[in-house]
Write a structure and sequence with these properties.
The N terminus is likely disordered. The strands form three sheets. This protein has a six-stranded mixed sheet with strand order 1-6-5-4-2-3. Helix 2 packs across helix 11 and helix 4 packs parallel to helix 11. It is of the alpha/beta class. 43% of the residues are buried. It is globular, with a radius of gyration of 24 Å. Strand 4, helix 7 and strand 5 form a beta-alpha-beta unit.
Length: 477
């Protein structure tokens, strides 16, 4: 399996059987023209706070792999479910619904907020049970042998990914030597004598002028932003990696996937793939059956997290107003509210429509190696904006008043009438029904840093004595 200390700064480790499982997933995605999906559950550093959302390593992973797999007829997505100040419990209690039932690979990166192995255990078990696919569990570490145990008892695919530092980069002592190195590694290469030249950890800005901007013939110009903008994003804490550290982590994750893809194509080139090299249904069923068979082995993890042991035995479902979430327009609490929804339940709007104007800080300087340009091979890969839905069907900013409450069924003025009321309020990220964690998601575009773009949002539905009854239609019961 590999040693944590020896592999953490390298590329990580993965059992041979699990690497073959990764190949099998890629082969299935290609041959069935399906999607290949990666999801990451983690804390603020993994979410990419301090950087633009698209600079986080999950998004950079998608930027690299999406155009490559597209040339093989396969759609690729990488979803960033990082949330600042939290672990992963708010995700794993409904892993399939929140992260998506279609994930092939699950990353965990929450070591600062989840010190025990129990949280990783429940996350893994719920993902294996609740997702239609039994994802490869690729975690930041496995110090408590959680992954080992699951792999040995169920055959689930596992791995630990490294940072890609590989013992460090060459250290140089002069600015002249530094400038001869590739731009991507200069940040890591300064000796103590010139450390001041490597202090530019972040690259980003909050606004780029949109005057005269259009996209595919549509006028998307804006004379000026609705609020004054900061010069650069906030959240640049000392423990948050910068964009080039995220870039390096993305490369460390991309390389093993490309190795697996190369192995698949090489095998396929020599002979047609056998059923057991790309069929997945029975493969998933076998893993899931063994997870259920050994349910008693996982109960201690649920008990340690003070949640019911059923979460370690059965797939759970859930809805939330928090973001990000897969298929956000279908997985919100609002989506299951019965009765007519009052306009006050509508998510606030973004300040402008996608896409963003070109921002130079998201790309290498002119003349430097541009990996994205290489993988696109001169053909820009179109954004998948078709899935971005309009979340502004109703009027914006409508507030429920006491006069409304007097007519609302179930409010304190009409307590005997038990049917949905209209006084529910909500407040959260702008465009929250577009917050699915993918690289080109588009939400949170309000406030004083419109280009920040992070999906990390906390929200809920607020009711009180004026609100009336609330009803939910619970699906798949």
């Amino acid at each position: 399996y590999g040693d944590h200390q020896a592999t953490h700064t390298a590329g990580g480790w993965m059992p041979d059987a699990s690497f073959q499982g990764l190949q099998r997933r890629l082969a299935h995605a290609i041959l069935s023209q399906d999607r290949f999906v990666v999801a990451m559950a983690g804390h603020s550093a993994a979410a990419g706070h301090g950087n633009h959302f698209v600079q986080a390593y999950t998004g950079q992973l998608q930027r690299l792999l999406e155009p490559i797999l597209a040339r093989l007829g396969t759609k690729m997505a990488a979803r960033n479910f990082g949330m600042g100040g939290l672990g992963t419990q708010q995700v794993f209690m409904a892993a399939g619904d929140i992260m998506g039932h279609d994930i092939d690979v699950l990353l965990w990166d929450s070591s600062m907020t989840e010190k025990d192995g129990a949280a990783r255990g429940v996350l893994a078990i719920q993902a294996l049970l609740a997702c239609e696919r039994a994802p490869l569990l690729w975690f930041q570490h496995d110090k408590e042998q959680i992954l080992h145990k699951i792999h040995e008892l169920t055959g689930a695919d596992i791995g630990v990914y490294g940072t890609g530092m590989v013992g460090g980069f060459p250290q140089v002592n002069t600015e002249e030597e530094l400038n001869k190195l590739p731009w991507a590694i200069r940040h890591f290469a300064c000796s103590k004598d010139i450390s001041h030249l490597c202090n530019e950890r972040y690259h980003g800005k909050c606004w780029v002028d949109r005057q005269g901007f259009s996209w595919e013939g549509i006028d998307l110009s804006m004379e000026k932003p609705p609020t004054n903008q900061k010069a650069e994003p906030g959240g640049r804490a000392g423990w948050h990696p910068g964009d080039r550290e995220h870039q390096l982590q993305a490369r460390a994750l991309t390389f093993p996937i490309l190795q697996a893809l190369h192995a698949v194509l090489k095998t396929w080139m020599n002979a047609p793939l056998k059923d057991n090299q790309w069929h997945m249904t029975e493969y998933y069923k076998t893993i899931k059956a063994k997870v259920v068979e050994h349910a008693s082995e996982w109960e201690a993890w649920c008990e340690a997290k003070m949640i019911h042991t059923k979460f370690c035995k059965f797939p759970a479902q859930g809805r939330t107003e928090n973001t990000p979430r897969a298929r956000p327009w279908e997985t919100s609490l609002r989506s299951i509210v019965s009765g007519n929804k009052h306009p006050s339940m509508t998510p606030p709007l973004n300040s402008y429509d996608p896409p963003d104007v070109y921002q130079s800080s998201l790309f290498p300087p002119a003349g430097e190696v541009n990996v994205l340009a290489i993988v696109e091979n001169g053909v820009p890969y179109a954004k998948n904006l078709a899935r971005i839905v309009d979340s502004s069907q109703d009027a914006l900013g409508v507030r429920f008043t006491e006069e409304d409450a007097k007519e609302a069924p179930g409010s304190k003025y009409n307590p005997s009438v038990i049917q949905p009321g209209k006084g529910w309020q909500r407040g959260d990220t702008a465009g929250s029904d577009n917050c699915d964690g993918e690289h080109d998601s588009f939400c949170g575009r309000t406030g004083d840093c419109l280009l920040y773009g992070h999906n990390d949002g906390r929200a809920g539905l607020t009711i009180d004595g004026f609100s009336g009854w609330g009803g939910f239609n619970l699906p798949r019961m």
